[in-house]
Amino acid sequence: MITIIHGEDIVKSRNFFLQKKASVLNPHTFLADNLELADLIQIIEGSSLFDSSKSIFIEDFFTKKKSVSQEFKSITSYLNKKVNLIDLYFFEAKTLSKSQLNNFKNAKVETFLLPQELFKFLDSLFTKDKNLKIRLYHKVIENNEIELVFYMLLRQIRLLLFFKEESSQQIEEVKRLSPWQRKNLSLTSKTLSLTFLKSLHKKLYLLDLRNKSGKLALPLVKYLDFFLLEF
Hints:
By secondary structure, this protein is of the alpha/beta class. The chain has 2 domains: 2-111, P-loop containing nucleotide triphosphate hydrolases (Rossmann fold), CATH 3.40.50; 116-229, Zinc Finger, Delta Prime, domain 3 (Up-down Bundle). It has 12 helices and 5 strands. It has a 5-stranded parallel beta sheet, covered by helices on one side.
């Protein structure tokens, strides 16, 4: 069986992927950058006393392998023929398109979408009503991991910076946005200065570094409270 794990909620999708891998005795894990057809053939068609499950875990296949390349076509064609012989899991830290999913028509698809309340919070970032912004923030963290909220907050500022540039539509992350998201970000970016957005991005970047290195004196959730009250 082939399972495709994708979606914007990367915390839940990643945890699901890791849980599946942890449940297997001898998983074969590949990053798409280092994956070749020969590797898959060796695992699937090779024989081993210690490797009867043929469980394979591949990360970023659709992102790193261009769908028009011969390598992509060869790998997808081969795996579709061997679907009954393997347990294969693809992980993508984004939402895949219908055409990408159709490369494996018989695959089980696990989609992890972000909650609408998170988008409401992100849309409220630059409202004059700070109480509303803080209220929405606390509502979001009741049901979502703080790491996800932080990631989406940093992503929102980064996207707004992209929209300050004329070439933003050429950026892959922008291309994946829905039309309504692009419209909202474009309108919001016009009301904010480049200097202001850069300062917010720098603060979040430094906060991320301190959090990852364990140098925060308070929980991350508290620091975001202070950050949101600054503007």
